[in-house]
Amino acid sequence: MSENSWGKSAAGRGKVPKDEVRTALLQTAMGLVQTNGLTVGFEHLLMDDLIKEAGVPRSAVYKIWETKEAFFEDLLSEVANQVSPGRADEESLVATWEYLGFRADELRTPEGRRRIFLDVVSLAAEQNFEAVTSSVQWRTYVALASTALSYPSAVRDRVIESLRNSELAFLDQMEVFYRNIVPAVGYRLRPDLNDDYRPLVVASSAVIEGLGISRAIIPDLVEARYNIENEGRSAEVSLAAISYHAITSSFIVPDPNYDAEAAIARLSGGIDEIPMVQPRSRSIDD
Known about the structure:
Layout: H1 18-36, H2 47-54, H3 58-64, H4 68-82, H5 90-102, H6 110-133, H7 136-147, H8 153-184, E1 187-189, H9 198-215, H10 219-222, E2 225-230, E3 233-238, H11 239-251, E4 252-254, H12 260-268
Helix pairs in contact: 1-2, 1-4, 4-8, 5-6, 5-8, 6-9, 6-11, 9-11
């Protein structure tokens, strides 16, 4: 074994099936990552402590992984398989739909639609920013995504493939959100985007995540509040809201065929009336 091998085995533990040892040690390490986040190199994970907490024989561990590096590569892949940005869910759509229902009457005029669009976007951006960027799960996701290319080729490909699958799931979630909310407030995707909401999803989420990273360095700027004019009314919004609105506004245009009365009737029907438009069935390469 190499100089990085686990070392001598512990005696008197009894034989434990290989699959059980592998699962127990990885799940123990995953629990620590989910609690504390991911640090480059896993310096915070002490192998003796992991083995003790997992309750598996040291001898069985080094028969599965000859070196600590080999274990860490498997752990990285496992983290990538299980981690999700946690950036979207059906609750966000329901909450936004309920909010629109309270202000449905404003949808009768272009000014009202612009005003409510800014307010809805601001509300969604601020809630999403706080919920996402304060979570250990998101920090782990960012750490994996930002360092994936530096890993050895075998583990790098496994991690990138897992992160790609997570991104595809996120794209589907957020496409559902936009396909429901955008038409409800009198807008549509720009025609030159060919009914493809994915560029909007990627660009808007990049703003939130970028501000989340900046928040750790310059919180005074990122957390500042701004008073802006919103169609004749003053609104106090965050930098996340202003930035999110700027991005989304560049991807959508007013819908000339918008039926305000039909939209108001649908919104007034409550959350059971949410038209759950699904994403188009296609791969990311389409």
